[in-house]
Amino acid sequence: MIDIYTLSLEALSKKLAEWGEPRFRAKQLWTWLYDKRAASFDDMTDLPKPLRDRLSRELTLGSLTVEMEQIAKDGTIKRLYRLLDGQLIESVLMEYDDDRRTACISTQAGCAMGCVFCATGQMGFGRHLTADEIFEQAVVFARDLEKRGERLSNVVLMGMGEPFHNYEASLAAVRRLIHDLGIGARHITISTVGLVPMIRRFADEGLQVKLAISLHAATDTERSALLPINRRYPLADLLSACRSYVQTTGRRISFEWTLIHGSNDTPEQAHALGALLSGLMCHVNVIPLNPTAGFEGDPSAPARINAFIDILASYDVPATVRIRRGIDIDAGCGQLKAKVLKRGNSVSGE
Fold first, then answer.
1. I need a labelling partner for 297 at 20 to 30 A (CA). Which of 162, 175, 204, 205 fits?
2. pLDDT digit of tens for each residue in the chain (350 aa)?
3. Domain total for the chain?
4. Is the Cβ–Cβ distance between 192 and 198 less than 8 Å?
5. Where in the sequence numbering do the catalytic residues fall?
């Protein structure tokens, strides 16, 4: 069966024409899919019943199968999906008091970057996702929210995988988020660990999409220990690309900084970071570490976080603490998949 979300409007029109349907049916169906965000073909009430029946027989509304779901006290929803080939990926829906509804979606099954504090990086690389598989994660949450009378407002490519390692599919999915699902470009963020050539390429795309860089350390020695990609693209090259991005796009760049107690939350690191970013149009998102089983580290205490931010302010580098969502569930990148895989290995080993 064909996943209907893989069809363009032109392809959908051609398919329906082959079935002898009038031309306007494709537009009707498209409206149900992406404006009304119908969860089933039966919900498409202004389509003739015979057409709805045929759609149900020959097409599917997506290809993702929910393997596991967790819901946090703060309303955060974490899902583990199984793909058609058996690969597992994660998506998260985060709800905020200002009515933002943000989907955090994956671009790869696993990740090849090897960041030591990330559960996904610890499990290694599976494969790239297709643009349709990336896009569908947002569609599913948009459908769920539509049932509740709410709208998906933001999408961040910050789930499993490195979006710029899967550049073509990630950008194709972003364009579909904008043009098909109607998410404003400025409400979409792509996060990268710092693939310098792709940052430079992204600057020339002409998109108003936000860019976030996972930084986490202000010296090459310390960053290379946390993010192996830094050995290939050291800080001087990365910051050069970031300055070029800001100059080309006129857009502010964000830096992600996971605060690890006694490691990168010291005054020395804060001063080094302030000096590194001084004069660059940017913002630092400070994120207390979400602990994982494969990394021995603890999140910073509030007093250390505030001191860190104050030091950055002395360099005119703005920083805020990102509100952590889903702390009481496995909401961190790769954590739910890691738990399921560990459980499976335990069962198979008995």
1. 162
2. 899 999 999 999 999 999 999 999 999 999 999 999 999 999 999 999 999 999 999 999 999 999 999 999 888 999 999 999 999 999 999 998 888 999 999 999 999 998 887 877 778 899 999 999 999 999 999 999 999 999 999 999 999 999 999 999 999 999 999 999 999 999 999 999 999 999 999 999 999 999 999 999 999 999 999 899 999 999 999 999 999 999 999 999 999 998 888 888 999 999 999 999 999 999 999 988 776 556 666 778 889 999 999 999 999 999 999 776 666 655 555 566 565 555 565 433 33
3. 3
4. yes
5. 90, 333
Residue 331 resides in a domain = no
The parent domain of residue 115 ranges over 63-191
Give yes or no: residues 114 and 139 share one domain. yes
- On whether residue 196 sits in a domain, the answer given is no
Identify whether 133 is part of a domain.
yes
212: which residues sit within 8 A by CB, 6+ positions away?
Answer: 156, 158, 189, 190, 191, 192, 253, 254, 255, 256, 285
Do both 230 and 286 map to the same domain? Answer: yes
330 inside domain: no
